[in-house]
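Hallway conversation turned thread

IA: we were arguing at lunch whether anyone had actually written out NAD(P)/FAD-dependent oxidoreductase end to end. Turns out nobody had. So, for the record, here is the sequence (481 residues) and right after it the structure tokens. Reply here if something looks off.
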Amino acid sequence: MTEHVGVAIVGAGIAGLGLLLRLAEAGRRDAVVLERGDGVGGTWRDNTYPGVACDIPAHLYSFSFAPRAGWSRRYAPGAEIRAYLERCARPVQDRIRLRTAVVGAAWEADAGVWRITTDRGVLTADALVLAVGRLVEPAMPDLPGLEAFPGPVRHTARWEPGLDVAGEAVGIVGTGASAVQLAPRLVEAGARVTVFQRTAPWIVPREDVAYDEATRTRFAADDAARAAHRAALFAEQEAGFDARRLGTPALDAARARARAHLEEQVPDPALRAVLTPDTEMGCKRILLSDEYYPAVAAGGIRVVPSALAALDGGTAVAASGERVDLDALVLATGFVTDRPPIASTITGTDGALAAAWAEGMRAFASVAVPGFPNLFVLDGPNAALGHNSAVHMIETQIAYVLGALDHVAGGAVLDVDPAAEQAYADEVQARAADTVWLTCDSWYRHGASGRLALLWPGTATAFRERNGRFDPEPYRVLARR
């Protein structure tokens, strides 16, 4: 007999764990998490490269309903975040099925359930929640000669321990957050680092600080003090949205701060010119670092202002024609973000989710897709932020989904009206019109359509006001047969 559950959640990262924990808090034990990996933590389980850390303050990048007083630093290292998520998962560990990959799911209209096929068997569920995240599948560049490169090749999201780089010439492809975090650590380990820079990033001071023992003790003893600190951090981050809107004094001030940071840390004007961005600030991810520029200025990191075009044996060939001999290669090339690969295996009433998202991910309230009854997406279309905590956004979506699941538990089949989804998509694009995010190509946008597919073009507060409570009005509500 096929196993049946109330809610099947795909993914044991922050979103999947958060929903499972809130369901357990509400007394529901009919939910399971299906996780293909061997542990919880999602992005923070997979990314273990030297220097990996969060760029949102730790007290804000954690569940509001599961606070931690003992964060070691303002910006937590990746291993500390993973350990926090593992602790959060302990009360619901019996409902998390590790090493269980979903290979397909189809809506069965006659029964009003999702039939989910995993590599360990089949189960059905009244509701299916995709909590697979965006920073999951590494984007592998199409580099002629890559397979024949004689040295070790690592993607930052698939790091393997034991790589000895002392005295080695190491190439890094990319200048995003992982590259800027990793490169100084490789220099410290004795590597001669060459970064292939297609686009110079905007970098601002990180200003990381450790929490001393007295502060951690105070936060542990005084919930109000810790909550006030979190609220102050939230307000500080939220104020950053104005710097993502074109023509604002806040954007001018942010540019000036970044340029002053570059000038202060890189005295050589010729080198500064190489490192000066030619895109609008914030149209791509703004990076936080106090170490990258000094390592470049000191000669530990050499920047080639050109994309890597090919590999000729152990020689990297830049698009500019420059050739660099390498012993090892690191791909800091990010992730597949247009749509999660699992979308091709999810079949609704009229076809695959991948087809519905052919022109970029979209969903009503950033959660529901027409033609996919009782399917809810967490941390998906237009649910990320360029200035504040993803956890706040995820908790907003969890609150919405919990309301929807109450209806599903009562026997409802919820299928959002396509007109409502279109109106929401139009609203999102209208909100984005005066933001920096439409001024350049980036992983925030869908390449073909140019739509802002990943970010919410507003404040976290506005997202919660818009999407923090479930309303059945935009849905066709049917009774399960």
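OS: looked through it. The radius of gyration is 23 Å.
IA: good, adding that to the notes. The chain has two domains: 3-137+336-479, 153-209+250-331.
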